[in-house]
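Narrative of activities, Objective 1.

The group set out to show that a structural description can be obtained from nothing but a protein's sequence at a throughput compatible with the screening campaign. Below is one input-output pair from the validation batch, recorded exactly as produced.
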Amino acid sequence: MKITVLDAATLGEDLSFEMWEALGEVSIYQTTPAEKVIERLIDSDVAILNKVKITKEVVAALPKLKLVCVAATGFDNIDIAACKKHSVAVCNVKGYSTHSVAQITITLALALATHLLEYNEYVTGGDYTKSGVQNRLVPVFHELMGKTFGIVGLGNIGKQVARVAEAFGCKVLCFKRTPDPDYNCVDLKTLLSRSDIVSVHLPLSEETHHIIGENELALMKNTAILINAARGAVTDENAVANAIERGVIGGFATDVYSVEPLEENSPLQRIKNHKNVILTPHMAWGAYESRLRCMNEIAENITAFFGGETRNRIV
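Output recorded for this entry:
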């Protein structure tokens, strides 16, 4: 069996590939540009990738390819219809990053809610030393206890964020297209208008593309914090930048972008230095333990597929 890894750099530099090497001959590429995908997969039985796009043209040109393994839960970079047409199986990995993403989501919420970066800058920049005053309480911050935390998308990650938010004493509101009776589910407009913090945890689809846009941002409190730990394009990035510049919302943090890495002409570049904005490089999913679980799950997916079992199959 020949296994080709197209973008190993997205998995970090601290993990061994031994769990895959035990299954067959493994070729590892740190990155793969679009024009090299077919060439590198031409003799492969299995493709492992994270962000590389598998288009219908790619699938049609690879008669030996049997399985595409996505090192992620989302698979919007794979042409699923083409894979089905050409009898190429696709497997993703579910649940591996739940705790990692939830941890970073809450970290971003806390950092913005407490103005933590501004307080750190006050000390490290020397102003605290020069002040002669033992403490500083500007900008004013508030406890999360009693605040409303709105969660858009109620999969594994959304549910974990809900549990942590409740532990801080927050009232949790959730938006889910099919409401869950175990959670306080409301429509999106209600959630946005009532929440002090909103975090988004939706897969990207035609329905969720720009689900948070100008009209939705206008519904939010001007003190509210918006966090995107899902996919960049579930928010309208230009609308978000405008909302920050005009004070429509109180803060914004994102770990994901409509084009990655963040483009030089992205509207988010306009607000990157605002004190109420935090931008991180799509790292929320990537705690060491999370990545190790992901890689082991891929090995299990490959073993199951060639053993005639159905496991984590998309098609």
